[in-house]
Write a structure and sequence with these properties.
With 387 residues, this protein is of the alpha/beta class. It folds into two domains: 3-163, 2-Layer Sandwich (VC0802-like), CATH 3.30.2130; 175-384, HUPs (Rossmann fold), CATH 3.40.50.620. The protein has 14 helices and 15 strands. It has helices spanning 11-14, 19-33, 58-65, 84-94, 116-130, 185-195, 213-230, 241-250, 256-274, 294-301, 318-328, 331-334, 356-363, 368-377; strands at 3-9, 40-44, 47-51, 71-81, 100-107, 135-136, 143-150, 154-158, 162-163, 175-179, 199-206, 233-239, 280-281, 309-310, 380-384. Strands 1, 2, 3, 4, 5, 6, 7, 8 and 9 form a nine-stranded mixed sheet that branches. A six-stranded mixed sheet has the order 14-13-10-11-12-15. Helix 4 packs across helix 5 and helix 6 (185-195) runs parallel beside helix 7 (213-230). The longest helix has 19 residues, at 256-274. The model has no long low-confidence stretch (mean pLDDT 94). Bound molecules: adenosine-5'-triphosphate and magnesium ion. Magnesium ion binds at residues 181, 183, 340, 342.
Length: 387
């Protein structure tokens, strides 16, 4: 009997006029994830079906597809032509030997004559014949065997419902430009926004030779891990050393980080607009460090003129962020000890509540436009492909 994978997506957000748009986006994403595999993905009413794959690869496929945003659960099912004895035989095969069970029939095919309950009772008979020690328990069964009877006179028999990541299909919410450092937070911020359907680009600022090339590689590794969820990510690596030296030489030390972040945001906005992104994303979390107070955020935010800045972690504790980082597999890479550009010329006492007018006055000592232009002229573009 052939094995297939049934994919379910949340009904709630797919209702309404945009349903077919979301469905198309989602099935395209599933197909993209399975690009390298020999299999067929098709749409059934209310769900998708993967078939025609090598059964030895079932687990691998499940693991890939589980990470596609927009899917809520999946099940590996056996396909059986509509014949009660045959379906009963498969139910008996998947059933446990002891304990209790129930059979739940979902009958999309109304032409079969019997009701769902009648079919379940009959199939239960086959299971009990094969496993006399088993008991039926409709309310609190140890195992539930599900039988989906579809319109095409085919039954899908399965037990386990495997949770997928949920969210919205990547791409259905447009594109965003994420500031991706090598830290713990920004990869989680990327994950959060991709989960709401955003297709990501990323910008990384690096201070070679003050920081090692490994810092850049680490960030690209993080992007590669994120592709499991986000698909391919265009990463723009911006040389930031010249900007940092200019600030260091011309501005008060305590303003270093604030001014640096204002220049990062300006570059991020220009890149975002150039690459058709509708927002900027950062991994900031309120009060985590000096540059993440309301006053600091106001001062860095004020240079962004045309786009919203999303900070999906703003209300999260570090511990909560770490839980997600571990879940999505970025944590171990994030904690590798390569210095980020933010540690170069790090002042002893960064200003915690910067005042916009003072920062603007200090910044006036710089040729900000020339610094931005020069950094942008030397951007390295890396297409990080789904691994
Ligand atoms: P993270 O863990 O994401 O590095 P953090 O706690 O170290 O964050 P900051 O260093 O203040 O906090 O950085 C705040 C946000 O600014 C980061 O989450 C990221 O979005 C952005 N950012 C910081 N450094 C860089 C960098 N070198 N390149 C790109 N973005 C950066
Ligand atoms: Mg950091």
């Amino acid at each position: 009997m052939e094995k297939v994978i049934l994919l379910r997506y949340g009904e709630i957000y797919l209702k309404g006029r945009n349903r077919s748009y979301f469905e198309r986006c989602l099935i395209d994403n599933v197909k993209e994830v399975l690009n390298a595999y020999n299999c067929n993905v098709s749409k059934m009413p209310g769900r998708f079906l993967i078939e025609g794959f090598d059964p030895d690869l079932t687990e691998e496929l499940v693991d890939k597809v589980r990470k596609v945003f927009g899917l809520h659960s999946l099940s590996v099912a056996t396909v059986v032509p509509y014949d009660l004895a045959e379906i009963g035989r498969i139910c008996a095969q998947v059933a446990p030997n002891t304990g209790s069970f129930r059979i739940t029939v979902n009958r999309a095919d109304k032409s079969v004559g019997l009701t769902s309950i009648q079919i379940a009772a009959e199939l239960g008979g086959y299971v009990l014949d094969a496993h006399p020690a088993l008991k039926v328990d409709l309310h609190h069964p140890d195992k539930e065997i599900r039988v989906d009877l579809r319109e095409n006179h085919t039954a899908y028999v399965f037990m386990d419902v495997i949770a997928a990541v949920g969210g919205m299909p990547v791409g259905c919410s447009g594109r965003g430009m994420a500031l991706l450092s090598g830290g713990i937070d920004s990869p989680v911020a990327c994950y959060r926004m991709a989960k709401r359907g955003m297709k990501l680009c990323a910008v990384h600022f690096h201070s070679y030779p003050y920081t090692s090339l490994m810092a850049k590689e680490k960030t690209l590794d993080l992007a590669r891990i994120l592709t499991d969820y986000c698909g391919d990510i265009d990463v723009f690596v911006v040389p930031f050393t010249e900007v940092q030296i200019a600030i260091h030489e011309n501005c008060p030390a305590e303003y270093m980080i604030t001014i640096m972040r204002r220049i990062m945001m300006r570059i991020a906005e220009r890149l975002a607009l150039k690459h058709k992104c509708g927002s900027i994303i950062t991994g900031e979390s309120l009060a985590q460090v000096a540059s993440q107070t309301q006053e600091s955020i106001l001062v860095t935010n004020s240079v962004v003129e045309r786009l919203p800045v999303f900070r999906p972690l703003i209300g999260m504790d570090k511990e909560e962020i770490i839980v997600t980082a571990r879940e999505i597999g970025t944590f171990d890479t994030s904690i590798l000890p390569y210095e980020d550009c933010c540690t170069v010329f790090l002042p002893k006492n960064p200003v915690i509540r910067p005042e916009l007018s003072l920062i603007e006055a200090a910044e006036a000592k710089l040729d900000v436009e020339a610094l931005i232009q020069n950094a942008m002229d030397n951007i390295e573009y890396v297409k990080v492909e789904r691994r």
